[in-house]
Amino acid sequence: MTHETKTDSSTKFTKDILWVGLSQILIYLFGFFTLPALTKNFGAETYGLWAQIGVTVGLLNPILTLHLGTATVRYLSAENRKEKLSQAFSNMFWLIVLIVLITIAAAFLLKNDLSILLFKSNVYDVFVILTFIWAGTGALFAFLIAYLRSKGKIKELSFINILCYSFKFIPLVVLAFLHFPLWFIVIVQISVEFIFILSLFGSITKKVGFRKPSTANLKKYLSFSIPQIPSGALLWIIDSSDRYFTTSYLGLSQTGIYSASYSIGSLVSMFYVPISFVIFPVISSFWEMGKVPSVKKYLEYSTKIFLFFGVPGSAGLYILSKPLLQILTTSEFLAGGGTLTLLIALSTLFLGIYQINLYIICLIEKTKFMPFIVGLSAVTNIVLNMLLIPRMGIMGAAISTIVSYAALSLIVLIWAKKRVNYRFDFVFLFKIVLASILMVIVIGILPLKGILNIIIAVVVGIAIYLVSVLALKTLSKKEKKFVHGFIMGIKDQIFH
Questions:
Q1: Can you give the pTM of this predicted structure?
Q2: Residue 291: which domain range?
Q3: Least confident of 143-157, 277-291, 403-417
């Protein structure tokens, strides 16, 4: 690889992360302000219902797509033949539509039983139907976005995500403050997604065409993606089943309180999602060209970038979570925050390490092992939830999640070490943890009541962290050069 090619690929990688990062920050801000809109106008129980709908949609989305979005990125990233792209896209889209329609029909037939299973009451049967329809539109939208991702259209899909979430967020807040019923708000969310699906589908098929379904290469794609379905469902168990166990043992109100703290703690994911989203098509192309050292480099640097921002982010949320809950919610939600939010943030750190490095399993086409890997952590999560939630309440749910994600991250790091000689820099980690602790000590003595004081604390915290990082000589010359290029890339994109 020439120096110019390396520079171009690194520059594009940085720019793509910036675009996805921008869209994720805005999406998280939308979600952040959804919290007060719903909690202040509906209370803990209805917010718990909203949270249950959200985690159920999160479970169903990858199942309804058969994880074909991952197959799209894996196999179509380097494909430029229009005929093959058109047939592959059409085959997968037809299959997903069929599965979505069958699933929605099943929800109609089983709505009462599903209402009891999901919400611990049969009075929410209308929400069962809406949940499954929403999962269907979400699956189709996710697949179309995956196609754009496979073709490197990161800037375009970032704009689409921002627009989609804007058109969902604004009416949600307005309707919530006007006290419209929750079922109507959900219908509006579904309608917005459906409009974007039609627009995306038209844009993609205009470029590559749309064909009748056939079996061409479908077996290959399914053999790659289907093994990921159980692992996706098992990963959902780790991520979201705590909400179901909390509802079962403690009720919807406690689920609402836990979900509010979870919304704040999981903000750390905004640091890994852009990296994880961008890195897969990049390293897939390198792998196909036999450039294993480049794969190793991107995995190691991506993990470092995430931890550089994620560790201090977790520490800062520990201090700021209760003041934020006081501003964004009502008094009944203040039982969360503090240690609970820190545990959730730390579990998100482990999840980020896993999500960035799991692609090594996809590259070597060993996805059949993923259900066993994730299954081990899922069983651990279920057992810990059953043991800890009745004894420790929502704190037990957070502990079970952090243990499960820690196990997952360790497994994929060992696998990456074996396949590409991956190195995890523990000295780097120690230094950023130490810098984060110094930051927390300083901002912990500042007044944190009110949004202005919180903003001041964030600015001071960032300054303390960066000074500490420099004082501890955390970054090598090569890494400083990389960070400098990263910052210059941000500046160029902003002014551009």
A1: 0.69
A2: 230-424
A3: 277-291
